[in-house]
Design brief:
Length: 438
């Protein structure tokens, strides 16, 4: 993308309505714009990040054996009347009436709809387990939408739903999803900690929230630093497919202390070594639940068990705040100059800064680099002064900056800057491409 013609409306001033760093930076770097309270339009730079997060979430869901579907945003009220949640959900639910006076709603979550799809089609225990997921917009009419995309009214969520024949199967599905989550967050450069949580309006008996530390988080959290050292991605860590691995993994996850203030147990906390105590504000980026037969019973979903008798399958649900993660990653990774994207979700691998547009050497070298990146670089081809280009590249947070000036172009070198460390080296264009992996 060429910056001279890109729709990336950056702001010099800090927008008055933004109270936290991620919201300020998302507006200033031109990622999103608010269209009404708690509802945002995603502009090219922001959308590329959103899509990258979505891709990682999808890859890890698929790797865990979940199957992607796509349910609609608009749901009939009947399904929610069956489960009893139509009344319970209260004012957070956006209720709509169609031209035939039928009650509809904009889905805040999909337990009812997925249970309906399941009961129409699955007949036998032999077809279980099933984990179905989708990545779809949700609407919750939050009392206080705030902090930009972190607490929006319309937001993008990955929600998965598991169906198992018995308790043991449901627990295995729960652990599988928990492992998928730890892998997902690690790939985004986040240290998310699973914390036992209340089950809230979804109901049920087992629940974990996945929390990252940030000063602007909405709840107080406590955990053992042992979590920070665990690697979920390396080959010899944990596998989704082996029950003994899942059991060992779950033991590790529940063995170290971690709790939100609602579940905080001071006696257990006192037993954590002082140098391993971590506490602070936390942002919830995911939430998983095991709730058994709550929906399969209320909505009459049954399959034939091994003895031919009807069984209500055991369910769990598993949410990731895909759009919230864009803000959460920025909260965890920024400095005074702007965003610092982890390579895995950056909108572009690199920015190419042409310090002298019109200089034949600079222009030719930049064009060659730009072509070599095959769409994965943002080329700052504006006629602005160098200072403005440096500032915008830092603000937008590209992991690498390739700086091309007339002297270097003549000598066949560029300056390569790593955004995260500020480290700069003078290298050949080939060397720059090799280091970035363009
Ligand atoms: P919260 O306590 O933050 O309201 P929740 O417990 O209501 O979250 P879930 O119903 O479990 O959330 O939804 C799954 C995930 O969706 C959450 O972990 C969060 O990351 C994200 N999420 C929930 N509400 C919002 C919102 N209003 N804006 C953006 N993301 C949200
Ligand atoms: Mg909520």
């Amino acid at each position: 993308m060429r910056l001279s013609h890109a729709f990336i409306p950056t702001l010099k001033e800090t927008p008055a309505e933004a109270q936290i760093a991620s919201h300020r930076l998302m507006l200033r770097a031109g990622l999103v714009r608010q269209t009404s309270a708690g509802i945002y339009a995603w502009l090219p730079l922001g959308l590329r990040v959103l899509r990258n997060i979505e891709r990682i979430v999808r890859e890890e869901q698929d790797a865990a054996g979940a199957q992607e579907i796509l349910m609609p945003t608009i749901q009939p009220a009947e399904l929610w009347k069956e489960s009893g949640r139509y009344e319970d959900y209260g004012k957070e639910m956006l209720r709509i009436r169609d031209r035939h006076d039928r009650d509809m709603l904009y889905g805040p979550t999909n337990e009812e709809m997925v249970t309906d799809l399941f009961r129409q089609s699955v007949r036998s225990y032999k077809e279980l387990p099933q984990i179905l997921y989708h990545i779809q917009w949700k609407f919750r009419d939050e009392v206080r939408p705030r902090f930009g995309v972190m607490r929006g009214r319309e937001f993008l969520m990955k929600d998965a739903y598991s169906f198992d024949i018995d308790h043991a199967g449901a627990v295995a599905s729960y652990r599988k999803m928990m492992l998928a989550y730890m892998r997902t967050f690690q790939r985004m450069g986040l240290k998310a900690i699973p914390m036992e949580a209340d089950t809230g309006p979804i109901g049920g008996e087992l629940s974990h929230e996945f929390i990252i530390l940030a000063p602007t988080g909405e709840s107080q959290v406590y955990y053992d630093a042992a979590f920070e050292e665990i690697d979920y991605l390396s080959g010899d860590s944990f596998s989704h497919d082996k029950p003994e691995d899942l059991a060992r993994f779950f033991e590790v996850m529940t063995g170290h202390y971690a709790a939100t203030d609602e579940k905080h147990d001071t006696a257990r906390w006192d037993r954590v070594a002082a140098n391993r105590k971590r506490e602070g504000r936390g942002i919830e980026v995911g939430h998983i639940f095991y709730f058994g037969t709550k929906y399969t019973k209320s909505m009459g979903a049954v399959v034939a068990g091994p003895d031919g008798k009807p069984v209500h399958p055991e369910m769990g649900s598993y949410g990731v705040g895909v759009s919230r993660l864009v803000g959460a990653v920025i909260e965890a990774s920024h400095d005074d100059n702007g965003i610092i994207w982890p390579d895995s979700i950056a909108p572009f691998k690199a920015a190419i800064l042409n310090l002298k547009i019109g200089d034949a050497g600079c222009d030719a070298l930049c064009e060659a680099l730009y072509a070599a990146f095959g769409g994965n670089a943002l080329y700052d081809d504006r006629t602005d002064r160098a200072g403005a280009k440096f500032a915008d590249a830092d603000l937008m947070g590209h992991p690498w900056q390739v700086v091309v000036g007339p002297r270097g172009a003549a000598a066949g070198t560029v300056e390569l800057k790593r955004r995260a460390t500020g480290e700069r080296v003078e290298v050949t264009p080939e060397e720059a491409l090799a280091r970035i992996g363009g």
